[in-house]
Amino acid sequence: MNAHELVSLQRRFFRTGQTKSLAYRTAALKRLRQGIEDYHQRILDALRADLNKSEAEAYSSEIRLVLGELDYTLEHLEEWAAPRVVPTSEQIPGGTSTIHPEPYGVTLIIAPWNYPFQLAFSPLIGAISAGNTAVLKPSELTPSVSKLTADLIRDCFPEQFVAVMEGEVQTSTELLREKFDYIFFTGSTPVGKVVMRAAAEHLTPTTLELGGKSPAIVHRDADLKRAAQSLVRGKFLNAGQTCVAPDYLLVHEDVREELLREIELEVADKYGEDVTQNPDFPHIVNERNFDRLSRFLNDGEALLGGRAIREQLLIEPTLLQGIDWESPVMQEEIFGPILPVMAYSDLDPVLEKVVDRPKPLALYLFTRDEKVQHTVLNTVSFGGGCVNETLLHMSSHELPFGGVGESGMGSYHGRQSFETFSHHKSMLVRTV
Ligand code: NAD
């Protein structure tokens, strides 16, 4: 079936109204949960095959997050889906005002390769919970996960409700020509622009979950051991191929040496003295990205790591020093296990530099000083972030997750996924 036939099929099905009933949506979410349970081992195997993710990492950063979203959604869906009564202006006597969340219709979800399971299934939960149909386009760079996604969805749902179209850019392009009622895209900023241009043709509302260079700032008074643990976990998870990974490190010059020593100890503790002997360190997704990252290793000087083994697509956790704002590694999102380090003496000019650049997806600040926290939060615009932690803001159901400016638009997770995939129909009913 081509893209046009598939969208027409889903549109006809959507118009029957079946997906709108709460019972249908709840049953679909439960079926999806069962499907994921049934495919548990295949998901782990596919993530190992495509990215060399260990079972522990694959479970905690992909499957567990999706199951958590499913359970949370099932628990709250009835409440979210109910019409909300809001006050009516006194100038309209006898009026009742309500907001009715309703599904958009036929939705498109385009997923990237770095968390290929989570970033396809998590938005799908939002689409289904809001009563839409969905076409999923997984990334071609993780073929095992793409195949299992197609199989799992086929086992759970008829194509008229949820379908997977596997393929490369051409498949995306073909899909983007069609008129969807909502598009949810996760991927790079340049492709985000392509998606938005295509969406503009049909005036299709769109969420763009993009990337960028997310800074980590370690201030003079930070708990350095804790900062090191958190930075290592955030930066080297999935070998740095994480949209919200700290991209570069800004550290106060007084604590630079001690922090770097703590990071070195933490890397050795977590991944072993020689990561090439660690069978569980994820590899770089393909040769093109490996070569791109290898070039950064010639930037500055490796304080830690610095080796790249092409046959294994492996790059060591690396700290780069001798970097400035103009260095090549500071010009694009790194998306690999390389952390450039720059020291500062005064925070204000550093924040100015950050503000001069595209708005990042995340920002991490390590300090106990509430004044510094306040200054950073009020000076820099970024998608979301943490103080004295990395990554964890994205695993909370209560915190909408998304970017701003070049790092994206719109957000999801928890209730926000339901809201994102719903149109809010405002109704005034007058009885006098
Ligand atoms: P990508 O933009 O290259 O690809 C994403 C998807 O778009 C894939 O399914 C791909 O097939 C498709 N695609 C690629 N080129 C296309 C084109 N010209 N037209 C239409 N579709 C096209 O991104 P990627 O390399 O898979 O993922 C890495 C990027 O995604 C990084 O920038 C990362 O920061 C970002 N990312 C963001 C988030 C987030 O939640 N904000 C999460 C993960 C990744």
From TrEMBL:
UniProt xrefs under InterPro entries: Ald_DH/histidinol_DH, Ald_DH_C, Ald_DH_CS_CYS, Ald_DH_CS_GLU, Ald_DH_N, Aldehyde_DH_dom, Aldehyde_DH_NAD(P)
SUPFAM superfamilies with a match to the protein in the record: ALDH-like
PROSITE patterns assigned to the protein according to its UniProt record, in alphabetical order: ALDEHYDE_DEHYDR_CYS, ALDEHYDE_DEHYDR_GLU
Pfam families: Aldedh
Span of domain Aldehyde dehydrogenase: 13-426
Keyword Oxidoreductase recorded: yes
Active site: E209
Keywords: Oxidoreductase
CDD domains: ALDH_YwdH-P39616
Family, as annotated: Belongs to the aldehyde dehydrogenase family.
Name of the protein described by the UniProt record: Aldehyde dehydrogenase
